[in-house]
Amino acid sequence: MSREEHIARTFVELADTLVAGFDLIDFLQQMTVRCTELLDITDAAVLLVHPGSHLLYSPAPCDPGLGLQRVLDVALEEGPGVEAYRTARQAVPDVPADETADKTAVRWPRWSAQVQRAGYAPPSAVPMRLREDSIGSLLLLHTGDRMLAPDDLRLAQALADAATIGLLHARTVGRQETVNTQLHTALHSRITIEQAKGILAARRNIPLNQAFDTMRRYARRHQTLLSKVALDVIDAGLLPDVPPARPESAAEG
């Protein structure tokens, strides 16, 4: 699959929020996966605000590691993700990495310390907002001393815009209570999903990202929520079969 085809397919995925059985957790997971596939970044995270509450981040599709976990915990309180959400503008370093690190250390001391410990360069974030509706931000993390390329930043903003439109549309078509409930569940189910991935990875002797993909495929095949599959793995000993590897061009999203 060419990069252009991959991008087009991703936009279709992000717009497809009105299907029966829409799973918000699956949607957020796929957004972060596609960002790492299409952009020159190491990790991505979606920071969303629960209605009437504060920012929370979505579960990670693979093992986030302790460093990334701590970065995301602090990202809910300070840093570019919070700034992009509150200002509805991109929060992007505009000076070399070493100078940016000095400035962010003064402005966001806890954030800067965690980012440096985890080995990331000064990250960027783009807002997830449509007109007056602000729902969060997309945090983009990478290593090394390079800055995110302008083309990648524009694509990241376009992906965030598409996801925002899809989520807001889902909320307005008579399903606001359902989507809000899923949002609450999704943003509080990180531990359950991480535990299920770990159990399945150990039992099937597969990497954590493949364990997540296996649960996701099982949920889609059985038309159930990913969170329900994770609970069944933990509580009922469910061990979905690992799908055989297929060529990239034929692989399911």
**Low-confidence segments:** 247-253
Which descriptor suits the 3D outline?
Answer: globular
Query: What helical percentage do the residues reach?
Result: 55-70%
Number of domains: 2
The overall strand count is: 4
Give me the side-by-side strand order of the main sheet: 2-1-4-3
Mean pLDDT: 81
Question: What is the terminal separation in angstroms?
Answer: 12 Å
**CATH topology title of the largest domain:** Beta-Lactamase
Individual helix count: 11
Features:
alpha+beta, Beta-Lactamase, 2 domains, single chain, Arc Repressor Mutant, subunit A, disordered C terminus, 11 helices, four-stranded antiparallel beta sheet, 56% helix
How would you portray this structure in words?
Helices cover 56% and strands 10% of the residues. By secondary structure, it is α+β, with helices and mostly antiparallel strands. It has 2 domains: 3-188, Beta-Lactamase (2-Layer Sandwich), CATH 3.30.450; 192-250, Arc Repressor Mutant, subunit A. It has a 4-stranded antiparallel sheet with strand order 2-1-4-3, with helices on both faces. Strand 3 (124-130) and strand 4 form a beta hairpin. Helix 1 (3-15) packs parallel to helix 7. The radius of gyration is 18 Å and the shape is globular. Residues 247-253 have low confidence and may be disordered.
Summarize the structure.
This protein is an alpha+beta fold. It is built from 11 helices and 4 strands. The radius of gyration is 18 Å and the shape is globular.
